[in-house]
Specification:
Number of domains of chain A: 2
Oligomer: heterodimer
Structural class of chain A: alpha/beta
Helix content of chain A: 25-40%
Structural class of chain B: alpha+beta
Distance between the termini of chain B: 20 Å
Family (chain B): Belongs to the SufE family.
Keywords (chain A): Lyase, Pyridoxal phosphate, Transferase
Radius of gyration of chain A: 22 Å
CATH topology of the largest domain in chain A: Aspartate Aminotransferase, domain 2
InterPro entries (chain B): Fe-S_metab-assoc_dom (IPR003808)
Number of domains of chain B: 1
Largest sheet of chain B: 3 strands, antiparallel
Number of strands of chain A: 17
Bound molecules: pyridoxal-5'-phosphate
CATH architecture of the largest domain in chain A: 3-Layer(aba) Sandwich
Protein name (chain B): Cysteine desulfuration protein SufE
Pfam families (chain B): SufE (PF02657)
Number of strands of chain B: 3
Strand content of chain B: 5-15%
Shape of chain B: globular
Number of helices of chain B: 6
Strand content of chain A: 15-25%
Distance between the termini of chain A: 53 Å
């Protein structure tokens, strides 16, 4: 694709033009898409990249001498380079393509997990997505390791003193979300990583929610692993990334066996390929990887300071407007949070509120958001979550507020 | 009235609503009017846990016909339960078991019976039919 020019500041009306779905209707009403925490919409450049690949570029990668195979291999590896630059990884081979965050975390739990011994400790937090809980429970079960959970406050902030006290020489790995999908909390992962390293533990950052809202520099964070999904950063579904430090990845055994991940295979002995191929068995999601590269090229045209300022303005506006409705109860009021608002309408079931908002064209998520322990913490079955991306507007917040008032009247 | 006739009656009732919100106002009314399930049946064994909302169902055979009472923590789920009960109550186990409940499609509420909604309704219909088969 052509080089996109970097924008100055942030102009939401211009950005909205890039996303065709934002101009569609549901039930004859303008779509108000406030479920960006679940998945983000795709800009035209990403859609075009997928189209073009299948129309003109499709071939398997890393294995053909013919023109198209070399071309698609080039596109795929260029996408890896784009992502490397975007997250500031040391080398492109430290950017492993996976199916998504869940797959990335499972890769670490199974492969790095082979280095975990009985009695070792793994630390997660009270606000993790099920994807960052269950693989560690499975690992602890397999290896006889111990899972510890950093508690949080009712505001939805982690107890960092408790975390410090949990760390010790038995701690093998800490795996914590950068940004909570259920509460919007931004955790101070950089400090937490330094604390983990002080006792010799490795640190995985669940970055599923991060890059939709902020930029990430893996070297600055100094994390050992960083996991994210393509579909939440305006890229396609079915593709994601695991970044890992070179020495850490090299010390890990392969996760899955198959084509591409080997150097030589005989029935007596197989030798494994180098990074990143060692962890990329089989034909990958080629078009997904390429289009994810395009999504990051698109993201790199933004002035992210302006994006963050705009999202903060949206968050503050939406929070203030929601506060004017006396029936609204908030869940997650951390000092440092992104444009994700979890709430309930007093006395009303989130399913009812969500179903009615849907009929007004407003897409929110209701339920436990794959974070049941968070809901148990507050003793609620679930919440209504409005999660805003940079293409949402104050007018859409107004429509949400009007819709909510109408729904509350209907239900009471 | 047969199951089919009751379904047609409901489809006619819904025909006057041109707007989704009106339709839902009616469903909410139905939910509020649903006769409550006897408290003694609001127990774990009667509970159908959905991810989003949950449903309690009690079924018994009275004479030749099935009798259902149910409840839910969500009012829209309850409104749809009221429709299902209206259609399936006082019908023979054989008729309940083979009811296709196509009216939900016609009035545009079939989405609530999609497994992805995880509101307990799909399992509730399954359970209603199971109970009918067991009582046949
Ligand atoms: C914090 C967090 N972690 C992990 C995941 C899992 O991502 P995926 O389903 O794309 O693998 C999500 C997605 O909702 C998430 O929000």
């Amino acid at each position: 694709m052509e080089k996109l020019a970097v924008q100055k500041g942030f102009n939401v009306e211009e950005v909205r033009k890039d996303f065709p779905i934002l101009h569609t209707k549901v039930y004859d009403r303008n779509l108000i898409y406030l479920d960006n925490g679940a998945t983000a919409q795709k800009p035209q450049v990403v859609i075009d990249a997928i189209d073009t690949f299948y129309a003109k570029e499709n071939a398997n990668i890393h294995r053909g001498v013919h023109f198209l195979s070399q071309h698609s291999t080039g596109l795929y590896e260029e996408a890896r380079n784009t992502i490397q630059r975007y997250i500031n990884a040391e080398n492109s081979y430290q950017v492993l393509f996976t199916k998504g965050t869940t797959d990335s975390i499972n890769l670490v739990a199974f492969s790095f997990g082979e280095l975990v011994k009985e009695g070792d400790e793994i630390i997660i937090s009270a606000m993790e997505h099920h994807s960052n809980i269950v693989p560690w429970q499975m690992l602890c079960e397999r290896k006889g390791a111990v899972l510890k959970v950093i508690p949080m406050s009712t505001k939805g902030e982690l107890d960092l003193d408790a975390y410090q006290n949990m760390l010790n020489e038995k701690t093998k790995l800490v795996s914590v979300t950068h940004i909570s999908n259920a509460l919007g909390t931004v955790n101070p992962v950089k400090e937490m990583i330094a604390q983990a390293h002080a006792v010799g533990a490795k640190f995985l950052v669940d970055g599923a929610q991060s890059m939709q809202h902020t930029t990430v520099d893996v070297q600055d964070l100094d994390c050992d692993f960083f996991a994210f999904s393509g579909h939440k950063v305006f890229g396609p579904t079915g593709v994601g990334v695991l970044y890992g430090k070179e020495d850490v990845l090299n010390a890990m055994p392969p996760y899955q066996g198959g084509g591409d991940m080997i150097k030589t295979v005989t029935f007596e002995k197989t030798t494994y390929n180098e990074l990143p191929h060692k962890f990329e068995a089989g034909t990958p999601n080629i078009v997904g990887g390429i289009a994810l590269g395009t999504a990051f090229e698109y993201l790199s045209t933004f002035d992210f300071e302006a994006v963050e300022a705009y999202e903060k303005e949206l968050l503050d506006y939406a929070t203030a407007e929601l506060k004017k409705i006396p029936e609204i109860e908030f869940y997650g009021e951390a000092e440092n949070k992104v444009s994700v608002i979890s709430f309930l309408v007093k006395g009303q079931h989130p399913y009812d509120v969500g179903s009615l908002l849907d009929k007004l064209g407003i897409a929110v998520r209701t339920g436990h958001h794959c974070a049941q322990p968070v809901m148990d913490f507050y003793s609620i079955p679930g919440t209504i979550r409005a999660s805003f991306a940079f293409y949402n507007t104050k007018e859409e917040v107004d429509i949400l507020i009007t819709g909510l008032k109408r729904v509350i009247t209907m239900l009471s | 009235m047969s199951i089919k006739e009751k379904e047609e009656e409901i489809v006619d009732e819904f025909a006057i609503y041109s707007d989704w919100m009106e339709k839902y106002e009616y469903i909410i009314e139905l939910g509020k009017d649903l006769p409550l399930i006897d408290e003694k049946y609001k127990v774990e064994e009667k509970l159908i846990k959905g991810c989003q909302s949950q449903v309690w169902l009690h079924a018994e055979k009275e004479g030749d016909v099935m009798k259902f009472t149910a409840d839910s923590d969500a009012i829209i789920t309850k409104g749809i339960i009221a429709l299902l009960i209206r259609v399936l109550n006082n019908e023979s186990p054989a008729d309940v078991a083979k009811a296709d409940l196509a009216f939900l499609q016609e009035i545009g509420l079939q989405e609530h019976l999609s497994p992805t909604r995880a509101n307990g309704l799909v399992s509730m219909v399954k359970k209603m039919k199971m109970e009918a088969i067991q009582n046949a």
